[in-house]
């Protein structure tokens, strides 16, 4: 028998008019050895309730509930809402100047939890171990790449790319964010060496980077810089 069920029975027996001694005997019958003082504590146990958070920085106390509701609805609409944006919107909408920490406390008070964004696919990690092994090897040797220039390219696309969301506990569906199939994007190429960074090359989406294009990039950005 669970702790809750037998203690519920104790409350029921007391409400039925049984004395403490009779309740102790009833507990013996169900395998629970208790004293009269324990029965008393069960019957008179009080539960402390935490006072709701009330920001003292809100001057007009009539605005507390509307501001709480506004923050909650904002995260229901956009789970990646920036705190700095909320601070500005609350000042414009309600005339109250709240700090970022106060907004975060209000968010927490309304059971909005921090969770990582999911995009519905896994990231391929096959290339990470070889690269890490290469770096560890040369760090161990004390290799100094004074005559090398390391180049790489990266795609940069538009849209919200924040790592976290704030949702109600268990609401995993709102952690999954959509991605556009063909978002506006640019490819940025650059290099870095002991001497510093090369100029950047920026290419629009759809440009084919074949041998000829890569040679143009090298001549335009790297060779002039290396001279």
Fold blueprint:
Blueprint: H1 3-15, H2 20-29, H3 36-43, H4 64-77, H5 83-94, H6 100-109, E1 112-116, H7 128-141, E2 149-157, E3 164-168, E4 185-193, E5 196-197, E6 201-204, H8 211-226
Antiparallel strand pairs: 1-3, 2-4, 4-5, 4-6
Provide structural commentary.
With 227 residues, the chain is an alpha+beta fold. The protein folds into three domains: 3-43; 61-110; 128-226, no CATH class. Helix content is 43%, strand content 15%. The chain is built from eight helices and six strands, in the order ααααααβαβββββα. Strands 2, 4, 5 and 6 form a four-stranded antiparallel β-sheet that branches. A two-stranded antiparallel sheet has the order 1-3. The chain is elongated. The mean pLDDT is 83. This is Transposase.
The best one-word shape is elongated
Helix/strand order, N-terminal first: HHHHHHEHEEEEEH
- How many H/I helices? 8
| Percent range for β-strand residues | 5-15%
- Overall pLDDT, averaged? 83
* Ends distance: 83 Å
Uncertain residue segments: none
Strand element count = 6
